[in-house]
Specification:
Elements (H helix, E strand, L loop, with lengths): L26 E6 L4 E6 L3 H4 L5 E5 L1 E3 L3 E7 L4 E11 L2 E7 L9 E4 L4 E8 L5 E7 L3 H8 L25 E4 L11 H10 L2 E7 L22 E5 L1 H12 L4 E4 L1 H10 L10 E5 L14 E5 L6 H10 L1 H13 L10 E4 L1
Parallel strand pairs: 1-17, 3-12, 3-14, 4-11, 14-16
Antiparallel strand pairs: 1-2, 5-6, 5-8, 6-7, 7-10, 8-9, 9-10, 12-13, 13-15, 16-17
Length: 342
């Protein structure tokens, strides 16, 4: 398939700039693949669509306040870093701007010296490896001086950093939020548990590579960047128990989906605990091994994420549903509305 096959026209005013309050009051478009129906609901109505014995798999990764503003020593020239991946021993892969001025050997200073970084090398794709120097706890310093790395299409200032975190986030490491989970509240999760819906967690640290545009005309020529994931023994057992008892496994977000499908099932037909790196690219023609349902936001045209949704819901159905969502004025992207695919 061609990249252009996944294009749709989106008026700019439908790109959500701010999250809905309360979280679970966003709209939800329910797409039933078998019945071929679409229903307009709100996210809190999700309780009606999940049955006792179903399970939700959530990504508990937490977003790093990964955008740093500082200057180069000794010139004082402005510099901006965006943390991408930890390489261990205080070495990180980062995006640097302006990049051409962040050369190996340069020392960068942030917050009057509270944090410093030496540029070690330039990676083949133009990123930088830097080694940080500081006193105290690195992540506490980041919480103090770092900014949330909101996507480029969000131009409004985020007043509350926690609104770009899920209420169940705990494992720091993402460069962007697993946004399908932003709609959940503690109260809604409790309602689901009371109904008998099981809740399981995976961790996939979202990298910016997930959101990089597909440039290849033929989508099979696109190369995904790797992201680190973990699926625990407890979550594996929950999924296997759900399947055994006839329940459905719903992935909350494309990141949870990619984790489950990266692990897949063993020769015994069961899901097993695993951790590692995945660069899985899911597009139409893919055969799903674990998923029965998907909860996700509305994604950018020609992105790998809309390709994943098309693989699960069907290409024609997905593109037609996106056109419908535009006509019905749904809110798009990270702070936008939700879609539940049954």
């Amino acid at each position: 398939m061609k990249r252009q096959d996944f294009f749709y026209h989106l008026p700019e005013e439908l790109i959500a700039q701010e999250p809905i309050e309360p979280r679970d009051h966003s709209r939800m478009l329910v797409l039933d693949r078998l019945a071929g129906t679409r229903t307009d609901r709100h996210f809190y109505d999700i309780v009606e669509y999940l049955k006792p014995g179903d399970c939700l798999i959530l990504n508990d990764s937490r977003v790093l306040p990964a955008r740093l503003y500082g200057h180069r020593e000794p010139t004082g020239g402005a510099v901006e870093l965006l943390l991408l991946n930890s390489k261990g021993l205080d070495v990180w892969e980062v995006l640097a701007g302006p990049g051409r001025k962040a050369r190996p050997g340069d020392v960068l200073t942030f917050a009057d010296g509270l944090l410093k970084a030496e540029v070690l090398e330039v990676t083949p794709d133009g990123n930088r490896l830097v080694k940080f120097q500081y006193k105290g706890n690195f992540y506490e310093i980041l919480e103090r001086i770092g900014q949330m790395p909101l996507p480029h299409y969000i131009t409004h200032e985020l007043k509350d950093k926690e609104r770009y975190q899920t209420v169940y986030s705990k494992d720091l490491g993402s460069a962007a939020a697993p946004t399908a989970g932003l709609h959940f509240t503690p109260e809604l999760l409790n309602k689901l548990k009371e109904k008998g819906v099981k809740i399981g967690f995976v961790t996939l640290h979202v990298g910016l590579g997930t959101f990089r545009p597909v440039k290849a005309d033929n989508i099979t020529d696109h190369k995904m960047h790797s992201e680190h994931y973990e699926l625990s023994e407890q979550t594996a057992e929950l999924i296997n128990e759900t399947k055994k008892n006839g329940g459905r496994v719903f992935a909350v977000g494309t990141t949870s989906c990619r984790t489950l499908e990266s692990v897949g099932v063993g020769e015994d037909g069961l899901v097993h605990a695993a951790d590692g790196w995945t660069d899985i690219f899911i597009y139409p023609g893919y055969t799903f091994k674990v998923l029965d349902g998907l909860i996700t936001n509305f994604h950018l045209p020609e992105s790998t994420l809309i390709m994943l949704v098309s693989a699960f819901a069907g290409y024609e159905t997905t593109m037609d549903t996106y056109r419908y969502a535009v006509e019905e004025r749904y809110r798009f992207f990270s702070f936008g509305d939700s879609m539940m695919i049954l």
